[in-house]
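agent> Task received from the user: take the single chain below, predict its 3D structure, and emit structure tokens. No templates, no multimer pairing.
agent> Plan: (1) validate residues, (2) run structure prediction, (3) serialize to tokens, (4) report one or two observations.
agent> Step 1 OK, no nonstandard residues flagged.
tool_call: predict_structure(input=
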Amino acid sequence: MMLLIMKKVIVYSGSYCPFCVRAKRLLQQKNVPFEEILLDDQPEELIALREKTGHRTIPQIFIGDHFVGGFTELAELESKGLLDQLLSGAETS
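)
tool_result: status=success, residues=93
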């Protein structure tokens, strides 16, 4: 039996964000465990995250140390068949 090593996934999100819901649903449908960090009551964290990534909206999704982007970028990786590669650590160039 092959053991699949999956990179850690972190989803920075908000409670009332429809794109956050869609991103989490996509990951759940793929049985990908993720850590969710709610930014509802953490404006300083959101500001720091925006400065780090240059991405203005949520969700902000990281796979390992790689900043994926938001739901649109996550869904694009999935539609191109590249998400599984990124999760397993394979190159997705």
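agent> Step 4: summary for the user.
The longest strand covers residues 9-13.
agent> Done.
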